[in-house]
Write a structure and sequence with these properties.
single chain, 141 residues, mainly alpha, Arc Repressor Mutant, subunit A, two-stranded antiparallel sheet, 7% strand
Amino acid sequence: MKPHSQQEQKQRTFEHFCKQILKNERNDYHRKIKQQREHEVLFSELSPKTLEQFAVWDKYFEDTYLFEIMGFEVAVADELLAEALKTLPQDRLQIILLSYFLGMSDPEIAGRLNLIRRTVSHRRKNSLQALKKFMEGYADE
């Protein structure tokens, strides 16, 4: 073989190799697209009833009970807890809401309500017992 023809042979071999790679990539791409079509469905092709199953409806303040305390609005999502809170006297309700829903400490609550810290602690403890008793009564039903 002549050196020139040997060079041409290498070039043809390389060209064939490159073309084969491109064909394989094309085949892989078409295979992948085919598999996607078999396993995936466009939203535009779904029936309204099927689309409805995928819908998510946000519940921002639906079934939420609002309590206003010292200019703050406290949202309670649990109906039983909201009913239990409604049974508390206003002063004890304030303490529970400030403590558990607004994250205030006993000294902070005492300062806002002009009470002694010990009084706040005692009322909070008694309020929790009353809430527990109320909620246990409904748990038995």
